[in-house]
């Protein structure tokens, strides 16, 4: 069986569109159509009902989908196990969104390999939808992301609350940053809370959908933005970024998503390592929030989108 045909079938099934599947697979739409046609010819069944609205699985397509997922999973297990380098006995592939690699994902790898030296680790990068697809197909066994969408065979666990705090590249008050504010799009919940509670703090000229990478932009310019406390603590310690007194913070949950069929020995090591890293990050994050509370009026920091306060 041609694995490329199976991946193409699953991509069309996931996106409901030959066009969207071609974009995500980086091939032409005609190539996607040809692959699906070859698969349908091999099976002797039509797998999709085509229309202007897109592509919908037929009854045969829905039945074949679970077999396609199983075949992909078996292929990935074989590829990863056979590819284990000499001296290693187990293999694990993990994925994370860009913002979650620095100071979380990389530390997690270090801790896992320290606890299980014979574990070979492969790391992948992607947005939440790509990571979820890799998890479903068995390419990845564990993923770190902000907005998981649960599927059968997967389990999600909350890792921590990412604390987004307002910082600037120079010492400034809340009233001094409007002209230099960069809006970082942290997702619909953040956008909604931001619009409701600090509508005057806008910058229609620049929006960044780059997550924590936006810190690299801010530190090199006279700019201000909402960034993760976990990520920017080093910049605060170096004096390259500065907390804005009295600025509300925003809690943004980070999730780990696990394949249910993950090897139990690997799961035990991975969970323990992630817990240890989380504990360390909680301490660093709390130090940043405590500093923000200390420089703000009163003894608490408002939370965007919530009536709660940090004391």
Would you kindly provide a written description of the structure presented here, covering whatever features stand out?
The protein is an alpha/beta fold and 311 residues long. It folds into three domains: 78 residues, Winged helix-like DNA-binding domain superfamily/Winged helix DNA-binding domain (Arc Repressor Mutant, subunit A, Orthogonal Bundle), CATH 1.10.10; 97 residues, 3-Layer(aba) Sandwich (D-Maltodextrin-Binding Protein, domain 2), CATH 3.40.190.10; 117 residues, D-Maltodextrin-Binding Protein, domain 2, CATH 3.40.190. The protein is built from ten helices and 13 strands. Strands 3, 4, 5, 6, 9, 10 and 11 form a seven-stranded mixed β-sheet that branches. Strands 1-2 form a two-stranded antiparallel ribbon. Helix 5 links the parallel strand 3 and strand 4. The radius of gyration is 23 Å and the shape is globular. The N and C termini lie far apart (59 Å). The relative contact order is 0.12. The C terminus is likely disordered.
User: What's the count of strands?
Assistant: 13
Note the beta-strand portion: 15-25%
- The tally of helices reads 10
Radius of gyration: 23 Å
Specify the overall morphology: globular
Average pLDDT value? 89
The N- and C-terminal alpha carbons lie at a distance of 59 Å
Structural class: alpha/beta
Uncertain spans: 307-311
What's the helix-strand series? HHHEEHEHEHEEEHEHEHEEHEE
Largest sheet: 7 strands, mixed
Overall tally of domains: 3
């Amino acid at each position: 069986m041609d694995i490329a045909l199976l991946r193409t079938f699953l991509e069309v099934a996931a996106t409901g569109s030959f066009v969207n599947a071609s974009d995500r697979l980086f091939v032409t739409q005609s190539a996607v159509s040809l692959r699906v046609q070859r698969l349908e010819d091999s099976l002797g069944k039509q797998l999709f009902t085509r229309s202007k609205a897109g592509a919908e699985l037929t009854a045969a397509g829905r039945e074949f989908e679970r077999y396609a997922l199983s075949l992909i999973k078996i292929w990935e297990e074989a590829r990863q196990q056979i590819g284990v380098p000499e001296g290693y006995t187990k293999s694990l592939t993990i994925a994370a969104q860009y913002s979650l690699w620095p100071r979380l994902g990389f530390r997690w790898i270090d801790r896992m390999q320290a606890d299980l030296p014979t574990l070979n680790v492969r790391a992948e990068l992607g947005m939440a939808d790509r990571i979820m697809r890799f998890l479903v197909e068995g390419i990845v066994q564990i993923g770190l992301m902000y907005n998981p969408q649960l599927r059968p065979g997967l389990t999600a666990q909350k890792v921590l609350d990412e604390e987004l705090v307002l910082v600037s590249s120079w010492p400034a008050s809340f009233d001094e940053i409007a002209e230099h504010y960069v809006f970082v799009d942290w997702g619909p919940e953040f956008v909604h809370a931001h619009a409701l509670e600090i509508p005057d703090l806008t910058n229609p000229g620049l929006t960044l959908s780059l997550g924590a990478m936006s810190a690299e932009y801010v530190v090199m310019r006279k700019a201000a933005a909402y960034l993760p406390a976990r990520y920017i603590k080093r910049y605060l310690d170096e004096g390259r970024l500065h907390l804005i007194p009295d600025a509300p913070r925003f809690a943004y949950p980070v999730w780990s998503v696990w394949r249910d069929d993950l090897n139990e020995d690997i799961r035990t090591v991975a969970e323990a390592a992630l817990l240890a890293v989380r504990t360390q990050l909680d301490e660093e994050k709390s130090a940043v929030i405590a500093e923000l509370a200390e420089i703000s009026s009163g003894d608490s920091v408002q939370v965007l989108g919530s009536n709660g306060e940090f004391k």
